[in-house]
Structure formats: structure tokens, C-alpha cells
Amino acid sequence: MTEPATPAKPAVNLGEGPGRLLVWLYGVFTVAAASRSVVQMIVDFGRAPLAYVLSALAAVVYAFITYSLVRGGPTARRAALVCCAAELAGVLVVGTWTLLAPGDFPDATVWSDFGMGYLFIPVILPVTAMVWLRRAAPGGAR
Predict the structure, then answer these.
(1) How many angstroms separate the CA atoms of 18 and 37, rounded?
(2) Which residues span the membrane (predicted)?
(3) Which terminal CB of the chain, N or C, has fewer other CB atoms within 10 Å?
(4) Could you give the count of Cα atoms lying within 13 Å of 12 in the half-sphere of its Cβ?
(5) Could you give the CA distance from residue 80 to residue 139 in angstroms, rounded to a whole number?
(6) Are residues 83 and 61 in contact, defined by beta-carbon separation less than 8 angstroms?
(7) Alpha-carbon dihedral 22, 71, 65, 40, rounded to 10 degrees
(8) d(Cα 91, Cα 108) in Å, to the nearest integer?
(9) Could you give the CA distance from residue 37 to residue 111 in angstroms, rounded to a whole number?
(10) How many C-beta atoms lie closer than 10 Å to residue 45's C-beta?
(11) What is the DSSP letter of 72?
(12) CA-wise closest residue to 55 among 141, 118, 124
């Protein structure tokens, strides 16, 4: 005797439920990283150009993830997953780099020391978002 097939889980709107909190957090981090990097680049770019450019890059990644979560749909979900993986890689690389060669960073980036200046949210956020994106997928993990 065969077991009845379980119906596939329907797609979830990425901006609903826990996704709403992720949209809010990514939005806040977009504004924080962008404003910080813009001010730093205008005021004293020569002091720590690498750190300021990396913070600006983080802001762009955060903005794209925010947009993808708000937009929703399968293509946006896949794009957000890729960007969250890239964000996590960036946090791990920059976090390790800032610990091993602190002289390369006369000023901190958003991802310095694995986001310690931001309560480690930069390292926790992409992991949480990837879990949510996988669960929100049609037929995703339950």
C-alpha cells in the first residue's frame, strides 16, 4: 500500500511573518551602512579607504536583500539567497581579515570583527535570512 502524497507547501510572501522583521533589519542596516560610509568617504576618505568602501559595499548588499525580500517571488527569493550567502562570506572574510591584520583597517567597517560593533548582527542576519528564505520557499523545509 502506498502512502498518500503530501501536498507541497505553498509559497510564503517573503515580507510576512519573520520576513517582516528581516525586511526591517535589512532596511535599518542599509541606512546605517550607507550613511556611515558616505559620511566617512566625504569627511576623511584618505584615512581608511578600504574600510569605507567595504562599508559602502555592505550597504549595497543590504539594500539589494531588502528589495528582494519586499519584492518576493521565486526569482527574488533566489537572488536574496545568493546575496545572503555573499554577505555571510563577506562578513567572515572581513571579520577574519580585521582580526589577523588590524593595521589594514585604521577605522572599522560594518563587518569588522564579525560585526562586533553592531552586536554581531551582521554575522547572525544572513544566516537567519537564509533559513527563512529556505523555509518560505514552495515545498521548503518545515
Answers:
(1) 28
(2) 21-43, 49-70, 79-100, 115-133
(3) N
(4) 19
(5) 18
(6) yes
(7) -100
(8) 13
(9) 12
(10) 11
(11) -
(12) 118
DSSP H stretches of helix in the chain = 18-44, 49-71, 74-100, 121-136
| 49-101 pLDDT per residue, tens | 999 999 999 999 999 999 999 998 899 999 999 999 999 999 999 999 999 99
Cell numbers representing residue 64 in the block: 539589494
pLDDT for 2: 62
Residue bearing the bigger pLDDT, 12 or 70: 70
pTM: 0.85
pLDDT digits (tens, 9 = 90+) for 21-51: 999 999 999 999 999 999 999 999 999 999 9
CA-nearest of 51, 17, 5 to 128 is 17
Confidence band for 138, pLDDT divided at 50, 70 and 90: confident
Q: What pLDDT is stored for residue 98 in this prediction?
A: 95
- The three three-digit cell numbers of residue 16, written as one number: 510576512
Domain ranges for the chain, please list them. 18-136
Please check whether residue 93 is in contact with residue 138, taking contact to mean a CB–CB distance below 8 angstroms. Answer: no
